[in-house]
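hey so i finally got around to running the thing on that chain from the lab meeting. sorry it took forever, my laptop kept dying and i had to restart like 3 times. anyway pasting the input first so we r on the same page abt which one it is
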Amino acid sequence: MDSVLVNLAAAVAFAGPSLALIHRRTAPPAALALAAAAVTFAVLSIRGAAAEATLEVTHEFAAFVGSDIRSKQFVVDRATAPGWLGPGIAALWTAAWAALAWHFGRTQRPGGPHPYLGPLLHCWTGSAIVLLLQKTAAPAPLALGLQIPSLSPFAAVVWPAILAASLRLANQSSRVIPFVLNLSLFVSLAHLPLAFVGTLATRGAWGTYLDVRAIDFIANPLTQVPVELVPGSTEQLAWLVWVPQLLVWPSISMLTAGGLGFAALMARRQAGA
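ok and heres what got predicted. didnt touch it at all, straight out
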């Protein structure tokens, strides 16, 4: 039961801020859900006060398993910390967003006049919190982004933020090209910091999911040949940080979250026709 509750609270913590940013009517229920999640994390923090927490951080990539190419989990970091610290950080961050969400419900434009401001704040602070939770050995659903197979831990924060920006842009724009250009810029702003921090983390041995030094033997999924990587090399960063964060995940975000925003834009235009 505890596992289900933690997973549910983590999902609310990651998606709740973006739900609050979509419209002033969605902000009050998001605030209540975020407050409940913050209480859950506070209880976890109190319960873990006398214990030490450990967390094994893994990074998934294609590799040879025997003679077959499969998605493989590489261990990239192991963290230990006081058991209260990770849930305590999550409680504070979620409580802060609960207060902001409640404020958004009382304003005409939740998250500020520009459609970028609120979602970008959620995206950047959420990504930073995920990294901090990994270093403080927080419960896996929090530190590893709900542990959804084949997804980056940051997707649980970044994708809802991009969806909120997409829907906000769709609500404020009546033309397709400006919508696409503005959303493309937002998606770039959402992912660029992860590529930058991943470069520093790998070169500086900082740990976390973005430190990929330990992944030195992968498979090219297109040519099906093995690829040996020198730790900290440009080739390693290109394969494991730059291409995923600057090409793969932004493309997926544009097709999914951007597609939903585009559908909302078309529906609004059709209703006004």
